[in-house]
Amino acid sequence: MPTYRIAPSILSADFARLGEEVRNVVRDGADMIHFDVMDNHYVPNLTIGPLVCEAIRPHVQVPIDVHLMVKPVDRIIPDFAKAGANIITFHPEGSEHVDRSLQLIRDHGCKAGLVFNPATSLEYLDYVMDKIDIILIMSVNPGFGGQSFIPQALKKIAEVRRRIDESGRDIMLEVDGGIKIENIAAAAKAGADTFVAGSAIFGKPDYKAVIDDMRAQLATV
């Protein structure tokens, strides 16, 4: 049975009390903290940077999973590594040299990964599987929280699972966008093992109840 991980996205948290929010969600069962970085250039929104990552790092022991929705990515990768990130993923469209960017992340002691938008080809994986620790499939178009899951993403998750299995490598398969209690099992059946959820968790008063319900759904897979 796969090891399933739930990674609440702080994009939907209460930023006025972010330290408390991440402590509470980890206490209530989160395996990772997902950290969405948007630059108002690659995506039409502006969020948070390395200083916020550095600020929450002392509050949690679990991995901080930084998703860079920025262009270009290379300049800011070392800053997030220094700020306490454990995992750094980026979109191939955000890098002029994808192989180099992946190696830069690893050189700074973090796990490295690529993110694929709904309409982005998986062909990039043909060349860099040896430098990848995680693959993130977007089940919404990046830029805003609270969007609805795009069902077509299930086919892409299944294809990536096939590629990972054929590679024989230990690569996490993450899905981000519209994940909730009602569809997390479908994403797991397609092959995902790591699930980003923002408003589905932080939008509810009882984080533990939501995370427990998600795990109950995963147990049916």
**Percent of residues in beta strands?**
15-25%
User: What is the string of SSEs from the N terminus onward?
Assistant: EHEHEHEHEHEHEHEHH
Secondary structure: helix percent:
25-40%
Which ranges are low-confidence, i.e. pLDDT below 50, for 5 or more consecutive residues?
none
Average pLDDT, to the nearest integer? 96
Instruction: Tell the overall outline.
Output: globular
Estimated structural class:
alpha/beta
Order of strands across the biggest sheet? 1-8-7-6-5-4-3-2
Note the main sheet: 8 strands, parallel
Counting H and I runs of at least 4 residues, what is the number of helices?
A: 9
Rg, rounded, reads: 16 Å
How many E strands? 8
Straight-line N-to-C gap: 9 Å
